[in-house]
Amino acid sequence: MSAEPNSALDGFVPWPEEFADRYRRAGYWRGEVLGSLLRAPARRDGARTALVEGERRWTYAELDAAADRRAAGLAELGLARGDRVLVQLPNSAEFIVLCFALFRLGAVPVFALPGHRRSEIAYLCELSEAVCYVVPDVYEGFDHRELAREVAAGYAGLKHVLVFGDPAEFRALERIEAEPRAWPDPDPAEPALLLLSGGTTGLPKLIARTHDDYMYNIRASVEVTGLDQGTTYLVVLPVAHNFALGCPGWLGALSVVGTVVLAADPSPARVFPLIARERVDTVALVPPLALLWADAAGAAGADLSSLRLIQVGGAKLAEPAAYRVAGVFGCVLQQVFGMAEGLLNFTALSDPAELVAGCQGRPLSPADEVLVLDPQGRPVPDGEVGELLTRGPYTLRGYYRAPEHNLRAFTEDGFYRTGDLVRRRPDATLVVEGRIKDQINRGGEKIAAAEVEGHLAAHPAVREAALVAVPDPVLGERAWAFLTLRGPAPRLPEIRRFLAERGLAGYKAPDRLEVVESWPVTGVGKIDKRELAALALERSAARRAAGAGGAPDRPATQNKDTDKGESDHG
Ligand code: OOB
Q1: How far is it, in rounded angstroms, from Cα 217 to Cα 222?
Q2: 339 CA from centroid of ligand 1 (Å)
Q3: Starting at the edge strand that comes first in sequence, how are the strands of the sheet with 476-485 ordered?
Q4: Which of 65, 130, 236, 522 is spaced 20 to 30 Å from 352 by Cα?
């Protein structure tokens, strides 16, 4: 592997040779590439249904052929092996066809979420040096072509904008097709895709996942979930999020010749009839969505009897919530504690209900190395809380093009510092107890405090801002922004507009503003966020006591900006 400037390898941190050899010898890395995942199923079971979207269905043969035609079309446009392509599409068959086309070409998709806006998209384009940006025309009332215009105006490296739907002055994605050709497979040790990290710093980070490592991620996840030819897997979380993508996700379901059903809208009213119609048996959910479904299941009268396995992850599923979900759906619940960086933990399908409800699973691979360390970096005994560090055959060795950050995020011997606080029990299961990273986990959607604080501090009335997580019965956490002021106090709707104008994704906007005269500080003079979180709790309790509870909450789905903030400050 050589790293030419501006190649996909430039800024990729590979595993040390010694580890790569070990993972190959142990059979974790098999030299398989993602583009071929569909080949055998298409050859053997070409007539089986691969995909369902609304009223449309694709057989394996059709999907395979569509991917080949799209790959050839992209090649005619000039896309080549190693090129990065920023993909921002909703849950759709087009997304899946595009992924396989890019994998086959050896081009590298960079997966954005539909909610990302100019701030995130422009940054991701520049960081990855993307040559192509793929968008829907209008999604959830937002015109992505407009965003593409802005991004293209500021970043000269962007050669192509492809639009799913009405392309305006751009090219229509659906028309990028040509006579299928064959390409040499990409090197399985090279990056196959770039995932977004939840982020803890001012700017999000990219995670390069190789063919070798991601194929193993998928294969091992398929095993622990028991997916097979009979599986009908429903995608309701964003199709580009690691959980729904490869844990085992739609890629896993396709790898075993199952059927993938795509839903653009996760609401029970839309999804329950789809589950009944397609006899869906497996689905991945975030906790708020699982609870919303549980609430709706009794009343809906829909036939959900086909459900066999509900995976819940992305944020902590509290113990009572776990019992509730398992009880209402009467199927197997699987807790999944994962991260785009790699490490996945699952409960087993055969685990007793008490075990499933009380932990977040165990590491997926026998080769996952897990450390639980105290603040001084010493291992804590089992049963005590410490920071989780990990390395293994599908966990990154460094963020993409982020050498400075990597010095802090990894130990010298290559362990990734997850920032999660866990307790490891004698049976090797992990219980997530909190985190030390400066992040808000809003129902599975990750918000890097520093990123939002930077934007807030740009407001003319704001002197300084601190974003903290406040516990929430529905979302798990919400984001409160504490501000010191230099002008008249802004109100929440104005702040939300201000952040939107700065191009920040809507889901990162705070749920509430709180003004303080001065900051509580820690011993070293930093803003004391613990103190602020305590203050937030106090103020919200006082408000509740005064009867100003706010409007009912709705869960985040990562697909859209569900709730617009129930309350203002003051
Ligand atoms: C998944 O991936 P990311 O990259 O969006 O977020 C990772 C972080 C973890 O470090 C942890 O802080 C939190 O999300 N998290 C959980 C959790 N699952 C993820 N915290 C508590 N309990 C859980 N079950 O969120 C993700 C990736 C693959 C599969 C599942 C989730």
Answers
A1: 9
A2: 5
A3: 462-472, 476-485, 512-515
A4: 236
H or E element in which residue 540 lies = helix 529-545
91 CB near ligand 1 (under 6 Å): no
- When divided into structural domains, the chain yields a total of 2
237, 339, 435, best to mutate for ligand 1 pocket (most atoms within 8 Å of CB): 339
**Among 246, 238, 231, which residue's Cα sits nearest to residue 279?**
231
Q: Does 406 share its domain with 510?
A: no
Ligand 1 near 316 CB (within 6 A):
yes
419 and 507 co-located in one domain: no
- Give the model's pLDDT for residue 203: 82
Q: Whose CA is nearest to atom 24 of ligand 1?
A: 337
Considering the domain architecture, whether residues 128 and 228 belong to the same structural domain is answered as yes
Cβ of 390 closer than 6 Å to ligand 1, yes or no, is: no
Same domain, 420 and 470: no
pTM of the shown model: 0.95
pLDDT along the chain (570 residues), means of 10: 73 98 98 96 97 98 98 98 97 98 97 96 97 98 98 97 98 98 94 93 91 98 97 98 98 98 95 97 98 88 93 97 95 98 98 98 98 98 98 98 96 98 97 96 96 97 97 94 97 98 97 96 92 93 74 39 38
Mutate to test the pocket of ligand 1, among 213, 243, 337, 508 (most ligand atoms within 8 A of CB): 337
User: Domain residues for 545?
Assistant: 438-553
**238 plus 271 within the same structural domain:** yes
CA distance 483 to 527: 11
Q: Rounding to the nearest 10 degrees, give the CA dihedral for residues 244, 246, 252, 254.
A: 70
**499 and 388 together in one domain:** no
Residue 558 domain-assigned (yes or no): no
- Centre of ligand 1 to C-alpha 292, Å, is 19
Number of separate helices (H) and strands (E) present in the chain: 17, 27
